[in-house]
Amino acid sequence: MTDLPDYYFRVRENGAAVFRLNPETRLRRLDLEQIAVANLRNGEIRAQGDYKLSEADLTAIRDWMAERAEVLAARDMDDILRAMDHLNLTAQWAQTKATPEQLEAVTDRLLLAMHDLRQVLVRKKSERIGRPEAE
Q: Could you tell me the pTM of the whole model?
């Protein structure tokens, strides 16, 4: 068998289920033993059952959590950049291709979403430059 990591992280919505790999089973099959659950939102690492987490376990889990947080942050930024592209594509569609019926179906919802976004961005910009919100 090739060199496998000591741990496998099954990604969940808020973190991961953490497994220890055991490639040396009696039948020469790979065995996964769940040892913990890691929660990215609150940083909690909870041992599974009666398993006692070693310092090496905790270090590996914390390292994974830090790397995962970086990946998710990069994805968030990519999503926002893609959203800006979609806004531009939507403007182009509305100007050049949309039928009156299509525009009627989406205009109010788009305007409300853009208004909400504008309010949030203006408030956050105000907070960053240290001024009261200007509308």
A: 0.76
pLDDT in tens, 89-116: 999 999 999 999 999 999 999 999 999 9
In the chain, where the domains are located? 1-95, 98-135
Q: Which residues pair with 21 in a beta bridge?
A: 32
Segment 19-44, tens digit of pLDDT: 999 877 566 678 899 999 999 999 99
The DSSP-derived string for 13-71 is TTEEEEEEEE---TTS--EEEEEEEEETTT--EEE-TTPPPPHHHHHHHHHHHHHHHHH
